[in-house]
Every structure is written in C-alpha cells, then in structure tokens.
Amino acid sequence: MAKGKESKPHIGIYGRRNHGKSSLINQLAGQDIAIVSDHAGTTTDPVKKSFEITGFGPVVLVDTAGIDDSGELGDKRTDKTRKSIPTIDLGILVIARNLFGDFEEKVIEEFNKTATPFIVVHNKSDEQPLDGSLKEMLESRYNRPVLDYNTVGSNHKGTLIDVIKRTIPESAYKTPSLVGDLLKYGDIVLLITPIDIEAPAGRLILPQVQAIRDVLDNDAVSIVLKEREVDAFLKKTGIQPSLAITDSQVFTRADSSVPPHIPLTSFSIVLARYKGDFENYVKGTPAISQLKDSDRVLLLESCTHHVSCDDIGRVKIPRWISNFTGKNLEYEVVAGLNDLPRPISEYALVIQCGGCMITRKQLINRIRPAVEAGIPVTNYGMAIAYVQGIFHRAIAPFVRQQTDALDYL
C-alpha cells in the first residue's frame, strides 16, 4: 500500500471477508471505487481512495483485506491490514450477521494501542438486524457508537456521516497554523530557500510553499530569497523581519547573516512543532553528544523522494553527526513507512524527517515505539542545528514561553 501521500483525514475500513466493506465504501463515495463481489477475499492489499464525502469533506478511505483471511497469502494480507492502522485517523469496524469474536477484538486492540478512535457498523441489517444484547455489550465494553446499517438503501448514510463527524478527531481535518502564533498583522517573515540539486525544477519544496501560504493566511508578508542574498538584502533595505525561517542545510550561513535579535528557525523545525512530537524532539536532540563508537542511528525518511548524490538524510546528516561526535557510528535509513530492519531497542538515536507528506497521526505513530522504549528521538532540522551549534537559537521562537522545555537543554 502506498502510504503517507495524503494529508487529508484517513478513514480505514476493517472487517471479515464478505461483510460488505467495499459496498460501504462505494456508498460513502457515491461511486464504484471498490470492487464488490459475493466471493470472499476480493480485496487483497489495503487500497487508498481519495474523494469527498458529501456533508463531511475530502478524505482518504482505506479499503483493507478481510481480517479473517487464512493461509500463507492470507496471513500476509491480514498483516498488511494490521499495519495500516497506525496510518489512519478513524477506524470503521464492519461486522455482519451478529458475528463478533477474536478477529474483531484483535483489531480493536490495535485501535487502542495506536490511540485510534473507531466506530462499529453492523452491516447487512436487511438480511439480519443487529441483536440488541450484542449492541449493548459492545457499547458498554468499548464506549463506542454501534450502528445497525445496510447499503441497499441510502437511509443510513446520513446517520453514519454524522457519527463520523462526531468521532473523528478535529486535528485530523482542521489545519493549525505553522507560525501564526508568532506573527501579528503586517509582520515580515524572511524565508531563506537555497536552490540546489535537491530543489525540484521550477518549484519550491512543500514546506517552503506551506510556510509562504501560512504567512499570507496570517496577514503577514513573505520575502523569499536565497541564502547568498540575505546580507545584501538586509543592508540595502534596512528591513527588520519579525522572523526568519531557513532551510536546515544552510543553517550556519543563515545564523551569521540574520542578526541575533531576529528569531531564526528552520522549515524542518517548524514542521516538527506543527505535526511532530516537538517536546520529545527537544529532549532527545542533546543525546547526539552521548553517542558512542558502534552506536546505531536510525533515520526515518517517511516522505519518499528521489535520492540525490548528496542527500540530506542519507549523506549530509550522517556526515555532520560523525564529524561532530568524532565517533564511528552505524547509520540505517528507512524510507516511507516500511518496517524497521531490527528491533527499535537496538538503536541509540532515532532521527525523523519533517514528515511534510504524511499526517500527524502517521508521524506520531512512526516514532511512538522509540518514545515508549526510551530511545532518544529528534528530527532532521533539530539534529542539524545541534551539530552546527545553533540549537538553542533555532528552537527559541517556540520555547521562549515554555520554560519546562528549556529545562531539558
């Protein structure tokens, strides 16, 4: 399954084979986007479909294989189904014919493990209505909505959408501001954007575009320029920006060009606060100084992209950290949301990318095993700022009113 390519709310549909999951998706979408068949096991790998639910908004629905699939191939399918749960914002567990047992309990266990809200839909009620005692048991045990449903008519669709609205977390579809809380009307923000081999031809990278839009949305002014133009621009214009945001790769250059009284941070650190585990990043970054020979460092490159010869995650960060620590370290890079090559406990440090192409839920669940295991975590921007000696300045715009966070340093 191609994961992490959409920032819209992700809704996963789970249930046994031939319980009508695909029919449910088609009804929500108002079109045939999932294969419907009387033959159990039609859906194989999880499939993502992006569309708009009338009355709710744009979403990504994840159609999954039956949780009761069997055999060697079936086990692989159910494993992929289970692994899709950390990537979704809301789960819909589909049951039918009043069947509820170990298969469903295991799915709910995964929902709870990843703090994923869910609802239970008893489908095909036109064939067999939901038993009252089962409904009472499920609602009592899990404190979740349980709907009696069928896809034959459209009478139930509105009720399901209302329940989705009430259950899905607001953070899944309401976009917070990147830097709006740091700005007031008319403020000027300097965006330092180097144009190098990793910059897409004719375009800016997504975090830079997001920053420009966020500044405009907050009635402030964006000034975009390359790193070698900063000194001349500030001297010639006399402009005093309220904030400067730089690409992490030119942090040192930006630090020397932007006067100390002007707050300076990076696009990656802005993203870390926007959708990452900012507090744990701040706590974990200084662990770079504690690395020892033969320690293993994991770099999570959750947004897959073309790899250049001087790639930031695969080449530059390992080089900078090795030079900073003077230690003989081992580095492993995992792209996308793929499985780790070894247990998380075997790493001394985890470095997460900005996650510009994945949802906050996906990013938080990506680093959750490390946090739970007590493994220090940081992100690309913070790690670069730390080894270049400007960590305090880079996080200061966001922690100046958070004395607890500063105590970690």
Structure commentary:
The protein is an alpha/beta fold. The chain has three domains: 10-172, Rossmann fold; 180-269, Rossmann fold (3-Layer(aba) Sandwich), CATH 3.40.50; 277-406, Rossmann fold. Helices cover 36% and strands 18% of the residues. The protein contains 15 helices and 14 strands. The strands form three sheets. A six-stranded mixed beta sheet has the order 2-3-1-4-5-6, with helices on both faces. The protein has a four-stranded parallel beta sheet with strand order 8-7-9-10, sandwiched between helices. Strand 4, helix 3 and strand 5 form a beta-alpha-beta unit. Helix 13 packs across helix 14 (391-399). Mean pLDDT is 86; it is low at 1-5 and 35-43.
Assign the CATH class of the largest domain.
Alpha Beta
CATH topology of the largest domain: Rossmann fold
- Low-confidence blocks of residues: 1-5, 35-43
Strand order of the largest sheet: 2-3-1-4-5-6
What is the second-level CATH architecture of the largest domain?
3-Layer(aba) Sandwich
Structural class: alpha/beta
What order do the SSEs take from the amino end to the carboxyl end, as H and E? EHEEHEHEHEHEHEHEHEHHEHEEHEHHH
Structurally, the number of domains stands at 3
The tally of beta strands, per DSSP, is 14
Mean pLDDT: 86
Beta-strand percentage?
A: 15-25%
Main pleated-sheet profile: 6 strands, mixed
Count of DSSP helices? 15
- What fraction, in percent, of the residue positions are helical? 25-40%
